[in-house]
Each structure stands twice: as structure tokens, then as C-alpha cells.
Specification:
Growth Hormone, Chain: A, 2 domains, two-stranded antiparallel ribbon, globular
């Protein structure tokens, strides 16, 4: 078979001398720590947004701008990772990023009343966070048991953030937004300690040829991933404000967010088993419909019970979807070049959600949040359909 007729093959993987150490429990635990601690500002975004509104006095447009620019910093880190992730020492880069993240969060406690300065500092914090997450994703992807390791990493994110949703509202009441920045700084400190056990490099991969139309199919999934995460952050950035607008207490909102995060741990861990008996496409479709039901339930007036159930179900659908979408992209990535972009395309969606929604927020109504989120949930399902349906038929 000639080169021009060749179908893109699976990329050949050459195990580097450090690959055995990469699979050690200590190394995997350190990488999971980076995976959890790096994006803490995103995991706690509802409480973060609430503290910015209540204790800094920012309006919805200012909050949307600040959080989107912080997420943009993380997005830029993921994009830059395409050029440095396989070329420079991971341990040194992670250490520098964790140290910078610690410093940026400590400075944030001093300049929280200066919006212009705070935006600059938070963008730097977002970039440092993005570097940690990029290293964690790529390094965990180089381990032998990557499915299990990613499942533990996601469950770890949910467990810690869920616990903080219970504890942090009381600290915010006592110390304002500095309580949030303090938690972010503490997370950076844990990441800095974990960097001691981060490997300097991972596996070495040879590049596969991008030939044949099928080699480009992961782009459908990557676009769907952007759409899905845009929908999530469009809603997640303002879910706390929606509860506050309905005059629910901060403690009740914190409990709802905490329970939703803890319950969704089962969804993140359970989809690996569920895909053995139900096709990926149907799981994604049901999750999408579940999110649409939650968004519909929170349109207009709603009770505390409705809010609680909707927030919990939304989180279950969200975290049940994420592992499946990553598996779908990897399953059709015959060139081996697109899976590394998952974090970048997710970051684009994460950064775009809040800034898109604020363009439509007028008169104190949060209805645009539900509409924008719902539209992009539907788009995500449609974009994943070509590869998810094809995958389940093979």
C-alpha cells in the first residue's frame, strides 16, 4: 500500500525511560493533585461569583468580564501548551506555575477593591492554573491506566469542591472574598508540594500521518466539547446569583451546590460501567435532556425544592457526560494528535460562557442564562452525534 493510499494508523508509542515511574502511585497521586488544585477557581465559581458580588460590589457585567478573563488566561495556557508541553521539563514548569499561582492569589487579597488591578492579577492566576492543568492532563494521559486515573482525578475534584461548598459560605460570611482567595492560595500550596513528585517528562510519541477523512472526525467532538462547556459555565457562573435572586439563604445555596457536587461523583465513576450496557450516544442524549429539564425548571419563579433538585440533577448530567465525551474523542482519534486538544477546546467553552451570557443580561433577569445554556447543550448533542452513533455501531 502506498503512502497516498494509507489510512491513518494508530500512533506508535515509544516508552521513555521515565515511563515506569510515571505509573507509580506516588506520581499518579501528585498528578491528580495538580488536576484538582489547578482549576479550583473554576470548581468554586458559584461561591467565587457570589463573594465578588456581595463583598466587592461588582455587578453582573463586571463579574462576567472578570471571570471570563480569568478563564481566558487558563485557555491561553492550554493553547501555549501545544508548543511546550513535550519540550520542557514538567516538574520545573509545574513548580513555577504553582508558585506563581500562590503569589497571584495572595496579591488578590490585597487588591480586591481595585477592579483593574484585580483583572490583571486574576488573568495571571488563570494562566498559572491552566499550565498546571495542562501538565496534569497530558501526564495522566501518558499513564498506563489512564481511564482509571482520570476517573479518580474527576472524582477528587468533585469531592473536594463539594466539601468546600459546605464549609466556604461560613468563611465568606466572616472574611468576605478574601476567604475565597485564601482557599485558592491554599490549593496552590498543595500543588506546589505535589510538584516534588511530578515527572520531568512522559512518554515519547511518534507522529502519525493525517490522511483519510476519518482522521479529522475528532474535530466534531472537540467542537461539541466547546459547546458543552460553554453551556455549563453560562449556567454555573450565575447559578448562585439565581438562588440569591430568589431570596434563598447563602447557607441553603451552599448546601445545594455541595450536595450536587458530591452526588455527581457517582455519575463520574459510574459511566465507565454504564457504557458496557448502554451506548454512549444514548447516555449523552439523556444527560443533555436532563440538563434542558433543569434549565426549564429554573425559568421564572421556582421554589427552594425545585432549585435544589435542578442543581443536583444538572451536576449529575454534567459529570456523567464529561468522561464519555473524552472517550468518544479518543476513540475516533486515529492520528493521535487531537486528544491533547481536549483541554484547550474545553477551556475555550469555559471562558466563553460567562462573557456571552452577560451580553444578554438586562433588568436583573437571569432568563438569558437558561436560554443560552440550553441552546448550546442542544448544539453539543448534535455535534457529538456523528461520532457517538458511529462509535456505538462498530
Amino acid at each position: 500500500m502506498t503512502d497516498s493510499m494509507a489510512v491513518a494508523a494508530e500512533p506508535e508509542t515509544v516508552v521513555s525511560p521515565g515511563a515506569t515511574a510515571l505509573d507509580s502511585r506516588t506520581t499518579v497521586s501528585a498528578l491528580i493533585c495538580l488536576f484538582i488544585m489547578g482549576p479550583m477557581f473554576f470548581l468554586l465559581m458559584p461561591l467565587y461569583v457570589g463573594a465578588l458580588a456581595d463583598y466587592v460590589g461588582l455587578n453582573n457585567q463586571q463579574i462576567g468580564t472578570l471571570t471570563s478573563l480569568e478563564l481566558l488566561g487558563s485557555c491561553l495556557a492550554s493553547l501555549s501548551g501545544l508548543f511546550w508541553i513535550r519540550k520542557i521539563d514538567w516538574r520545573k514548569t509545574a513548580t513555577a506555575s504553582a508558585l506563581a499561582l500562590l503569589v497571584f492569589n495572595l496579591i488578590s487579597t490585597i487588591v480586591s477593591d481595585n477592579l483593574g488591578m484585580l483583572i490583571v492579577i486574576r488573568m495571571g492566576s488563570g494562566f498559572s492554573s491552566g499550565c498546571l492543568l495542562a501538565i496534569a492532563i497530558v501526564a495522566l494521559g501518558d499513564t498506563t491506566r489512564l481511564d482509571r486515573n482520570f476517573a479518580f482525578a474527576i472524582a477528587g475534584q468533585l469531592s473536594l469542591s463539594g466539601a468546600l461548598f459546605f464549609l466556604l459560605p461560613q468563611l465568606i460570611t466572616q472574611h468576605g472574598v478574601n476567604a475565597v482567595f485564601g482557599v485558592f492560595a491554599g490549593s496552590a500550596l498543595f500543588a506546589l508540594i505535589a510538584c516534588i513528585f511530578v515527572p520531568g517528562r512522559g512518554r515519547e510519541h511518534s507522529q502519525a500521518r493525517l490522511s483519510g477523512g476519518g482522521a479529522w472526525r475528532p474535530l466534531w467532538g472537540l467542537a461539541g466539547s466547546t459547546s458543552f462547556f460553554l453551556a455549563q459555565t453560562a449556567f454555573w457562573a450565575f447559578v448562585e446569583r439565581m438562588g440569591a435572586d430568589a431570596e434563598f439563604s447563602p447557607e441553603f445555596i451552599g448546601v445545594a451546590l455541595g450536595v450536587s457536587t458530591l452526588v455527581s461523583i457517582g455519575a463520574a465513576l459510574g459511566v465507565g460501567w454504564l457504557t458496557q450496557v448502554v451506548s454512549r450516544f444514548w447516555i449523552m442524549l439523556v444527560a443533555g435532556l436532563g440538563e434542558l429539564a433543569c434549565l426549564a425548571a429554573l425559568m421564572g419563579g421556582f421554589s427552594a425544592t425545585t432549585y435544589f433538585i435542578a442543581v443536583v440533577l444538572f451536576q449529575i448530567c454534567w459529570n456523567g457526560w464529561v468522561p464519555i465525551q473524552m472517550a468518544n474523542i479518543a476513540a475516533v482519534d486515529t492520528s493521535g494528535r487531537f486528544t491533547v486538544l481536549i483541554g484547550l477546546f474545553q477551556a475555550i467553552g469555559v471562558a466563553s460562557g460567562p462573557v456571552l451570557v452577560v451580553q444578554f443580561l438586562t433588568g436583573g433577569s437571569f432568563l438569558p442564562v437558561n436560554i443560552v445554556s440550553g441552546v448550546f447543550v442542544i448544539l453539543a448533542v448534535l455535534l457529538f452525534a456523528p461520532i457517538a452513533i458511529d462509535r456505538t455501531s462498530t
